[in-house]
């Protein structure tokens, strides 16, 4: 078994306390309801208590989901130097990122952040008296081109499809690091 990068190891006090937990099932977020504030609280609860959830009745055609997932897979399968060409930084918080920390421990995930409307203007600080604004602009990788195209197509069609796009892009590859680390441990 190989060595684990210490950046991925949590201090003992922050590690999960193992216990047998009986669960009824994966949290379901049903978008057929028009109550958006209820969706927000359900997503917050599921994220806090489970770390994931399943979205149902979203109206996204299977073909659209396959195309979105295919584009995301192509992007995240690129070599690291290619993905880092669109890395977010201090100036632009949008783009690729793979060094997020939770409790000072590196997360085993990659993300690609973007905004729906580009450019998006936001306050520079949370201070209500600070009137300075900041403009955010998406940055897109050259490959795969369908990543940008599919995003623009969804943006003009259906926001529930866009929600699924966000979830896929941000969450589908959390396991990628886990899988690669397990492969290293086997060797």
UniProtKB/TrEMBL annotation:
<protein>
    <recommendedName>
        <fullName>Non-haem dioxygenase N-terminal domain-containing protein</fullName>
    </recommendedName>
</protein>
<dbReference type="Pfam" id="PF14226">
    <property type="entry name" value="DIOX_N"/>
</dbReference>
<feature type="domain" description="Non-haem dioxygenase N-terminal">
    <location>
        <begin position="26"/>
        <end position="142"/>
    </location>
</feature>
<dbReference type="InterPro" id="IPR027443">
    <property type="entry name" value="IPNS-like_sf"/>
</dbReference>
<keyword id="KW-0408">Iron</keyword>
<dbReference type="InterPro" id="IPR026992">
    <property type="entry name" value="DIOX_N"/>
</dbReference>
<keyword id="KW-0479">Metal-binding</keyword>
<keyword id="KW-0560">Oxidoreductase</keyword>
């Amino acid at each position: 078994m190989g060595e684990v990068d210490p950046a991925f190891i949590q201090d003992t006090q922050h590690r999960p306390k193992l216990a047998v937990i009986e669960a009824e099932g994966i949290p379901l977020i049903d978008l057929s309801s028009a109550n958006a504030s209820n969706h927000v609280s359900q997503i917050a609860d599921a994220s806090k208590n489970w770390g994931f959830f399943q979205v149902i009745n979203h109206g996204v055609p299977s073909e659209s989901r396959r195309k979105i997932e295919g584009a995301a897979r192509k992007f995240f399968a690129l070599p690291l130097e290619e993905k880092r060409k669109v890395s977010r930084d201090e100036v632009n918080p949008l783009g690729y990122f793979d060094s997020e920390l939770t409790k000072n421990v590196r997360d085993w995930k990659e993300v690609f952040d973007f905004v729906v409307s580009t450019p998006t203007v936001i306050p520079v600080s949370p201070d209500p008296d600070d009137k300075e604004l900041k403009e955010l602009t998406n940055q897109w990788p050259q490959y795969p081109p369908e990543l940008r195209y599919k995003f623009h197509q969804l943006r003009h069609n259906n926001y529930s499809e866009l929600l699924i796009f966000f979830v896929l892009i941000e969450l589908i590859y959390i396991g990628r690091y886990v899988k690669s680390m397990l492969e290293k441990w086997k060797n």
